[in-house]
Design a protein that fits this description.
By secondary structure, the chain is of the alpha+beta class. The protein is built from 3 helices and 7 strands; from the N terminus they run βααββββββα. The protein is globular, with a radius of gyration of 14 Å.
Length: 143
Amino acid sequence: MTRSDVVERQVRIDARPEIVFEFFTDPAKMIRWKGVEAKLEPQPGGVYRVVMNEAQYVANGTFVELVPHSKIVFTWGWEGSSDVPPGSSTVEVTLTPDGDGTMLRLIHSGLPVPALAAHGEGWDKFLPRLATVAAGGEVPTDA
């Protein structure tokens, strides 16, 4: 069932779930697909903060739940935003083994309706980048 009040995406990644999981919990791996700087404390209540680009758009929240190699839940919002303030929405990522790869399902909930399209476009940009780097490829720095 697809809900209209969330951003929901699914992508198959040619890497095992334990590899994909690290790209959400290791700051050095995070910035290979999303952001230019990351502070991640992958434990419930730990910091999730990613400086997205040189313009200093900063996604900020906290980790809520981590199930090694299968589930990551964190809150999300933008520093300085009154529309989507830090921690005001929730991103849930599930990783399911799929042969020698992983099926990733992302549900971003709690977003105000006007922010749904922009966040959908963002995930449409970044999830293919994650699929590329997790499978051992490189994303051009200007992509």
